Amino acid sequence: MKRFTIFLNRYIVYLLSFVFIAFNLFLLSKDIWWLGILPLFVIFILIAVFRLDTLLFLTVFFVPLSYPLHEIITDTPVDLALPTELFLIIILFLFILKNLKGESFNKKILHHPVSIAIYLHLTWMLVTSFTSTMPLVSFKFLLSRIWFVIAFYFLAAELFRRNTGNIYKYIWFYVIPLLIVIAYTTNRHLSIGLFNQKAAHSVMGPFYNDHTAYGAVLAMVIPVVAGIFFEPKRSPWHRIIPGAVLAVVSMALVLSFSRAAWISLMVAVIVFFIVILKIKFHTLLIFSFVLLVAVFSQLESIKYQMEKNRQESSANLTEHIQSISNITTDDSNRERLNRWSCAWRMFLQKPVFGWGPGTYMFQYAPFQIVREKTSISTNMADRGTAHSEYLGPLSESGLPGMLSILSIIILTLITGFKTFAQLKDLRYRIITLSVIIGLITYYVHGILNNFLDTDKASALFWGFTAIIVSVNSFVMKNEETKPQTDNPQNKS
């Protein structure tokens, strides 16, 4: 009877497959193609419902390859990164359903100081969305921030807790498609001219909206790939892939001509050597104080030298670096100062609640002063935001908004460095420090640009933060016992 049942089930499958293929061929003959993608849709639904972890990794994989909706529908009132933000909406929906059913994340993650800082950040964004000058814009901005945090922080931290090998999966699922974007970008660059600085601003489109966003991501990835390369107990053969990836990503960073990304990586490297050399905090504090006094004592001279600098952005790397301090004729630098000034004036007018999350680009135009405007200034809300991850929230959500972002950063750094200092396993020490350095590149870059409203930067920012929290909460606590996880080296 059992054998007959198996036989019957097998031929039912054959019959249904034959009917599906025949019906699909008939529809294709009528130029109706939608049935062909139905199995993929069914598979996707099954993955989403039963394998949320697979859906997250799939989302991370498509982040570097995501395509903006406005490139397809030019007049769309709501812009999304496709397909990743559709996946993120599904993840958010399933997250809510699972919580309604009584399923929840580990309490160590939910009650971690970094998580509490994130709750406060989102709560204040909610408050300022109600007081916003443009509530619809603010609530949409808040919603996108929530689905980034739920997927890339909370869900990722839970996966890292269950299996530390997922840390390496997460990194590689982002880096591999990023290599595809690098190949595409470099190929376009070659067709125009490899060291064509003006072309470098747009050749990564439409995957990254400009070279600064592209450079910020490359700078974040470099320390982590370097960490994997220097992992202990790796044979020379096992270092070939991370070594090659490191070389490719480093080359891409140079060709991005993103001065902010270069600066951020240099600062992060300095921090790395401070940690490795175990320079005492009080020594660092004294040095910083002396440096600050020296800068303030020579402020007028420094300002004079910067005003004398007329070096424009250039294809020559040396000249391009020199142009960083040009605040007189370099339109990119002057426009950034213009946006910062507007953010400050907006803050002074609404210091507590701000103008509302996501509203800067629609509200800053009246705050521009003629003498500060440049040839690339606009009143049309079509050329970016406050160019700062700190001044943007200051103008949009007031002083508490900026402090909420700073609290996340400070608590993440405290947690990260404390974890690094106390860990015994060299593998985890290396990945923890690598992730800290990667985040520092973005913390520094955030002074000059802001990309946390995009999936490209959010996947790394919140994902790296989740790695630090999960290692701090679980790996560090269980080092004395045998971890019930796969060997992370096998995952990389």
What does this structure look like?
This protein has helices spanning 2-29, 38-50, 52-62, 84-100, 107-110, 113-130, 135-162, 165-192, 211-229, 240-256, 259-276, 281-297, 299-308, 317-322, 331-349, 360-363, 391-422, 426-448, 455-475; strands at residues 67-68, 81-82. The chain has a two-stranded antiparallel sheet with strand order 1-2. The protein has a domain at 110-295 and 377-491. Residues 483-492 have low confidence and may be disordered. The protein is mostly helical.
**Cα gyration radius (Å):** 25 Å
Q: Which class best fits the helix and strand makeup?
A: mainly alpha
Kindly report how far apart the N and C termini lie: 48 Å
> Helix count?
19
Provide the succession of SSEs: HHHEEHHHHHHHHHHHHHHHH
Mean pLDDT: 85
Going across the biggest sheet, name each strand in turn: 1-2
Largest sheet: 2 strands, antiparallel
> Low-confidence parts, pLDDT < 50 over ≥5 residues?
483-492
What is the general shape? globular
- Strands, total number: 2
Give the percentage of residues in beta strands.
Answer: under 5%
Q: Please give the share of residues in helix.
A: 55-70%
In short:
The protein has 492 residues and is mostly helical. The protein is built from 19 helices and 2 strands. The chain starts with a helix and ends in a 17-residue tail after the last helix.
